Every structure is written in C-alpha cells, then in structure tokens.
Amino acid sequence: xVHEGGRTPMKKKEFIDVLEYAIAKGRGVRVFINLDELHKExxxxxxxxxxxxxxxxxxxxxxxxxxxxxxxxxxxxxxxIN
Length: 82
Description:
By secondary structure, the chain is an alpha+beta fold. Helices cover 30% and strands 33% of the residues. It is built from 2 helices and 5 strands, in the order E-H-E-E-H-E-E.
C-alpha cells in the first residue's frame, strides 16, 4: 500500500489509512516530506514500533492537505509501507 503523491496532494485521510494499515500489519513506513526551499524531498523512515505514536503526532500536527500547521512550507507528499 502506497500513496505516490505527485500532482495531487495527499490528503490526511489517505495518510491515516496507510498508517493504520501499517500498524495492523506490524510494518514501518517511509514518509516523503517537501520543504518549499529544498530541491528534493526528504525521507523519514519510521520503524513499526513507532508508527502508532507518529500517527497521533501527524494527525494533530498536519492539516487536511498534509501541510504542517506551524509551517505551511512543509508538506507530506507520500507515504510508503516498508
């Protein structure tokens, strides 16, 4: 299960669905994040044991378009299950 991002921004519901699936399967995820000033996205690797905590964090810290509430320059582009 993967959201490829691309031209259509990932929505929070899609992101949460992927993380919940990863939790159910005991899998980690990789989160691709864009900062407006960077030329290429960054990748955050989250081990399975941390995914439940990160789900709570991302749910409260990011808006419906997966932009960081405290800095709209940061956006989650896609999430991939490891």
